[in-house]
Write a structure and sequence with these properties.
- The protein is an alpha/beta fold and 457 residues long.
- 37% of the residues lie in helices and 19% in strands.
- It is built from 15 helices and 20 strands.
- β5 and β6 form a beta hairpin.
């Protein structure tokens, strides 16, 4: 008779198949040859229920978060059964609950599909155990990012997974909705189909929207300082962000430091630029406004859309680098802008970091990227960058919200700052006597610009 590995009192011991009477008294976990665990005895039913609930929760999250948009096909029952190592009848139970909640529908012979948001009645009751889980809503506003930009950013998707993990451990379910510039509230804030127990939000919120739909619900802002709402927030520390970048460049001998930002009228970009100016003054470094390449890129219907390809920063940087004493280093809004700036500087004949040092910024640290198998962008390994630790910001926001949800009463309004760290890589170097010019045409360009300024052309 084949022998199996069974578990008694947390110890693996070889044994033969046990009779039903023994199994009824001793829970047994059999380790199959393929390494998967099979539960028997009194724990078998509990294990199946747990996996079924996990499947239901994962599908619910994927539908509500937008991973499965309206009318999109969900994985088949066979695929889900194989993925979760359960039978198809158990998969059907989980799908039945989601169908009853209005999140999916079935077409005989075609498959299972997600219901579009305007057509569904959202609910997050945990029907399997007959208990209602707390519902947390994440609101993103077009005042910061367009819906497409928010959905397609891989970092945000990883952060959602991290928030879901923390919320799930606290007995809550995460939903996601986007609010456009028309500020039409999502159905879950106006209907009676769901009770929202807490709100996390990202982006500027008009006071009228707050008063009508959010006031009275525990709320925490993420990377958004909003004193007019009297709401707690968790965000990256802009002053420490600027101090880390400027002090590093100062240690390398740089005294002429500029700033690059193409969203200067947006928040928190403007706040970070103001912090940059404050830290220059604190560190007793000179500053000239013409050292900075700051402007507001075009909006489409009021929204900042995803940037296609590599935007050309040459017109802005050409004016800066034509100065008699141009900057020897730039602090950029993020590493994407550092990459765009380097491409434009190379067109003007400058080399990074030999002639110009650049500092960028990114949301996640290297260890988090490696642990969660996020494919880094090609410039993440080159640019010295300010690491914002967004995973800590988002998780701390969740914890702060859970405290408000599960501890009713008066709570102080908190403004929590998460200090970034500087990850030094290859894009910064000690200052040279002055930026060198590689190509003769760059000299001609500078002379032409100087003549234009003097009115000779």
């Amino acid at each position: 008779m084949a022998r199996n590995l069974s578990v008694f009192a947390d110890r693996f011991v070889p044994c033969f198949f046990l009779p039903p009477l023994v199994k009824s008294f001793f829970p047994v976990i059999i380790l199959r040859r393929n390494g998967s665990l099979h539960y028997s005895g009194r724990e078998e039913k509990m294990a199946v229920l747990t996996v079924c609930q996990q499947l239901e929760d994962n599908l619910r999250h994927d539908i509500l978060s937008g991973k499965f948009p309206g009318r999109s096909r969900l994985p088949s029952e066979s695929v889900l059964a194989a993925r979760y190592s359960i039978c198809r009848s158990t998969v059907r139970k989980a799908l039945d609950h989601l169908e009853r909640d209005g999140l999916l529908y079935r077409v005989k012979g075609s498959g299972t599909f997600a219901v579009p948001a305007p057509e569904r009645h959202i609910t997050c009751r945990k029907r399997f155990r007959g208990l209602r889980r707390k519902s947390v809503l994440f609101l993103s506003f077009s005042t910061s990012y367009s819906e497409a930009k928010f959905r397609e950013n891989l970092n945000f998707r990883k952060l959602f997974d991290e928030m879901s993990r923390v919320l799930d451990s606290g007995g809550c379910t995460l939903m996601w909705c986007h609010v456009g510039l028309d500020f039409k509230p999502p159905q879950c804030l106006t209907g009676r189909d769901i009770e929202v127990d807490g709100i996390l939000f990202h982006g500027r919120v008009p006071p009228d929207f707050w008063s009508l739909y959010m006031k009275g619900i525990p709320c925490v802002a993420i990377n958004q300082f909003c004193p007019e709402l009297n709401c707690s927030c968790v965000r990256s520390d802009p002053q420490m962000r600027a101090w880390l970048a400027i002090s590093h460049l100062k240690d390398l001998g740089h005294t002429r430091i500029g700033y690059i930002c193409d969203e200067i009228k947006s928040y928190p970009q403007k706040e970070r630029y103001d912090a940059f100016l404050n830290m220059l003054d604190l560190l007793r470094l000179p500053h000239r406004t013409d050292w900075d390449a700051v402007w507001q890129r075009a909006r489409v219907n009021g929204e900042l859309l995803i940037e296609d390809g590599c935007p050309d920063f040459t017109p802005q940087l050409e004016l800066v680098m034509s100065l008699a004493e141009p900057p020897t280093a730039f602090v950029c809004l993020d590493s994407s802008r550092a990459f765009f700036a380097q491409s434009s500087l190379e067109k003007l004949g400058y080399s990074v970091p030999r002639d110009i040092s650049l500092i960028g910024a990114r949301m996640l640290n290297d260890s988090y990227v490696i642990e969660h198998k996020i494919v880094p962008r090609h410039y993440d390994s080159f640019y010295t960058a300010l690491v914002e630790h967004s995973e800590q910001i988002y998780c701390q926001s969740v914890r702060l919200l859970l405290d408000q949800i599960f501890s009713p009463g008066q709570h102080p309004v908190l403004n929590q700052l998460v200090v970034p760290e500087l990850d030094v890589k290859k894009s910064t170097a000690p200052v040279r006597a002055g930026p060198s010019v590689k190509h003769p045409e760059t000299v001609l360009t500078k002379k032409r610009l100087n003549r234009e300024k003097l009115g000779k052309v």
